[in-house]
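quick q for whoever's on today - can somebody do inverse folding on this one?? i tried earlier but teh output was garbage lol. tokens:
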């Protein structure tokens, strides 16, 4: 999020959506969710926490004041595609005893393929076809691809 005014606006959409929901803490996964969790929490007048990746497929919450048993938590991230970051953040919040009241992302590219068991709000939904390497038409033609995003290193 390189544009602070746009970030404030997009986060206000999340805050507006969850108005009336009791939220005591906002949690965002590294790296994309950190700024968003902070801004949503700031607008709500509450604290945020970071779910840091400890190892592949596992996140922990260790900074700040932590999460108290039964504390109402909103999880916020930037983009939803496979759901991996949200799932590991959900697990980290549950390990601390937090009660998840909702999930929010700026962009949902998952095309409805993820059911987390919690209300999910996306500021924007985008239909994007994702292929496994075995099914990718460009891969089959031998055209090199670059993987983009916070979870991949560029490959050529």
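ok took a stab at it. sequence:
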């Amino acid at each position: 999020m390189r544009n602070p005014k746009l970030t404030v606006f997009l986060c206000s959409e999340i805050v507006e959506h969850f108005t009336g929901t009791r939220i005591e803490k906002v949690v965002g996964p590294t790296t994309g969710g950190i700024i968003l969790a902070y801004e949503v929490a700031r607008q709500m007048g509450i604290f945020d926490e970071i779910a840091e990746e400890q190892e592949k497929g596992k996140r922990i919450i260790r900074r700040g004041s932590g999460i108290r048993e039964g504390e109402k938590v909103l999880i916020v991230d930037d983009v939803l595609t496979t759901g991996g970051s949200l799932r590991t953040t959900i697990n980290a919040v549950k390990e601390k005893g937090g009660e998840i009241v909702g999930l929010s992302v700026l962009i949902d590219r998952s095309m409805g393929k993820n059911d987390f068991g919690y209300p999910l709000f996306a500021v924007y939904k985008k239909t994007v076809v994702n292929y496994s390497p075995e099914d990718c038409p460009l891969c089959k033609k031998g055209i090199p691809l670059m993987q983009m995003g916070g979870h991949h290193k560029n490959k050529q």
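fwiw The beta strands are 25-29, 47-55, 58-61, 72-80, 99-108, 120-125. also The radius of gyration is 16 Å. so keep that in mind when u check it
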